[in-house]
Structure formats: C-alpha cells, structure tokens
Amino acid sequence: MPELPEMETYKSLLGSLIGGQKISDVEIGREKSINVPVERFIAQVSNQTIKTITRRAKYLIFQLQDDSCLLLHLMLGGWMFFGKEEDKPDRTIQVKLSFGEQHLYFIGLRLGYLHLLSPEEIKKEFEKLGLEVLDPDFTLDTFQQLMEKRKGMIKTTLINQEVLAGIGNAYSDEILWHAGIRPDKKINVLDEQQLTRVYQSIQFIFKKGIEQGGYMENPLYKGDNKTGGYQFYVYDQEGNACSRCHTPILKEEISNRKTFFCPNCQK
Question: Among this protein's residues, is 263 annotated catalytic?
C-alpha cells in the first residue's frame, strides 16, 4: 500500500506534469472507483484545469478550477501511470484523465478510489486524521505527549491514522528497525530515550523515503528514474540478512498485519 513517501513523490511529479493543465477527456472503466454517477463525474471534471495537487497523509487532492476536488486514495495495490496511449501498461484501467495526447491512468483501484468532493466534504474526510509526521508541529515533545496516553503495541499505534497520519505497515517496520525497538513492544514500557529514538527514526526514514522516491515498483512515466528508489531494510525481507548485524530477518503477524524485524537488533 502506498504510504506518505510514495504519495509525496506522486504529488511532486504530477505537479510538474499536469499542474495547470486542462482535463480534455475522462473515461471511467470501473464505476465503483468513483462516488457519483458516471455521467455527472465526466460532465463535472471534463474541461476543468487542475489548479493544485496537494497531499494529506496517504491521500492526494486534485483541486479543480471550480474549487471541487478529486480525492485519491490508492489503498492496497493502486498506482498511476502518465503517458501516451502506446506507452500505457497492459493493465486494466479504472479511471483515465486525458490531457490532450497524454493521459493519467489510475490502475489497481480495486479497493482504492477517486472521489469527486467539495472542499467542505474533503475537510470532513480528514476530520479524524491525526497529526501528520511531516507537520512542523510534530515535535519530539508532541510525539512524547501523544505516546504517554497510549498503552498498545508501538507498531499498531504508529499505523493508527487517528494518532499519527501517514505511517503505514511497511514504513512502521522500517522505523522500528532503525530505532532498535521490537514492533510488539508495549508503549507504556518504553522509556524517554527509546521514544526519542522512535521519533528520530520517523524523521530519518521518511526523509530518506521521500528523497529516494518511495518504494513503488512501477514508474509514473516512461523514463521516470525517481519513483521507487527506496530499498527496504526489513520490510518484506524475511530470511535475508539484517544489514546491521547480519541476523536473518523474521516475519510475524501483529494485529493481522505481516511484520518484519530483526530479532537481534530489535530488543
């Protein structure tokens, strides 16, 4: 599932590719990927200029010239491709936005969606989201205050979007490996030094993830050398040697989520 670094990469790349461009045509291949009747969606979105592309947590918001918005959540397996018809991937397309001869293809939206919403509806969608980890207000003191009220496992708390917005299953494993904390550790037994390490690891891993274009395996466009440069330390690395101590990485289920960690480094 794309997380904050992947969506931040999409945001910055799409801003230069389609920001200020007019949507010349719209095609809907899967009605369940949108939230209004197909005819209304096409009529309201066609011939609109994309004013801005912003991100909140794992969402992208395409603001249109009439101030309506397209809210994108890729969920599990969703991705995008931008290019000409002859360059598109050989995959089922759920939604296609055209910009003349170039098109933005939304792929793998079996659980994801592209919803047409008003600014007020967007605001309501985000009401329950917690503080974002890239927000200037996300300080060490703020993080420690948030954690002192929690009693669950550190991994499940990090991926709770109502506590912190933007961390998902993959990057939570990366953060906790970097901090040297077991993912099943209870928050109320972590001391101030350990919580400080977790906070610093959030900053380190997300900065690196964004700088390296996240972990998406599919390029956004032909010749894209930015997307997907991040290489996991532990996530999805079961059996591989830990890059820090060479102990084999383990996989366990925590709260029904596959979780990867080093049994030697994370104690």
Answer: no
